[in-house]
Amino acid sequence: MRYPKNQLDLEHMFQSEQDCINYLFEIKYIDGFACDICNNKTYWKNNRGLFVCQYCKHEHSITANTIFHKSKLPLTLLFRAIWWMIGQKNGVSAKGLQKILGIGSYETAWNWLHKFRRLMNNPNRNKLSETVEVDETYLGGTKPGKRGRGAEGKFKVAVAVEVKDNGTGRIRFETIEDVTSKSLLNFIKNNVYKGSIIITDDWTAYKNVPKCGYKFRTQSSKKNMEIEEVLPNAHRAISLLKRWLIGTHQNYTSADKLQYYLDEFTFRYNRRKSTSRGLLFYRIIEQSVIHSPVKNSEL
Asked: What does the mean pLDDT of the chain come to?
């Protein structure tokens, strides 16, 4: 596994487009080249940088059908954009990325950040386990009217947090249509292994959790207890999420984009103890070569 250790290492490793192409080739064909058409293992490289199957002569573009498909920006710039995005503790806004890397337009920087966010949710990731706090929160800035459950004009988000002896483990955030039993139980089943202990507040929508194969415990709020004390780990994660949205993205949220911001925050939080930015860079590049193309019109 080869990846840059720091910014200077990144600059040294990826000085040209060919350096980037070779790196993508290493990751895509980690077990060795295999032709998409005939599965032949031998190839040669032509003068256009394409990998040609020695048997059927099919030409392979290393960026075809990946997140970089038909990109007008050079890979050297996109690799630096990924590094800058994951290298900053709190991420980066599209405006900030545009200025730092000299990207031509805000729209281009915004599009690529959203493409990279799609790489931060690994569909094969392990579910949460053991003891898990589950709660809901509401995002979307200050709105008039009812607060808490039943609030109008805000986005509903479910949260699950592993509880460890020395603090919190991994987290999950997911947008939900409502805070009914159906929505919340689906969230739990999709994100937590059965047999785990689920801890919630006394909201009635959670009462059927034991029927889904989980151990269940409720934390009932008392009149003299602050709401943050009921599910402290979940509320700490929610507080950090809101602070991040305000600080990095000026609390920008929209219904169709919110989940991607949640995925980025989750990716960052779950790797907060990682001592290697380079390994995070590797994971993003690893996902980039298996992720299908995303058209700008889809963003």
From this structure: 89
The model's pLDDT over 36-50, given as tens digits with 9 standing for 90+, comes to 899 999 999 898 888
HSE (CB half, 13 Å, CA atoms) of 29? 20
CB atoms < 10 A from the CB of 169, how many? 16
What CATH number does domain 131-253 carry, 3.30.470.30, 3.90.930.12, 3.30.420.10, 1.20.1080.10?
3.30.420.10
Which phi and psi (to 5°) does residue 77 adopt?
Answer: -70, -40
> Which helix (H) or strand (E) covers residue 217, if one does?
strand 215-218
Cα–Cα distance between 201 and 220 in angstroms, integer?
Answer: 6
Q: Is 214 helix (H, G, I), strand (E, B) or coil?
A: coil
Pair type for strands 215-218 and 131-139: unpaired
CA distances from 174 to 13, 58, 189, 204, 258 (A): 36, 42, 12, 20, 9
Closest alpha carbon to 68 in 36, 25, 99 = 25
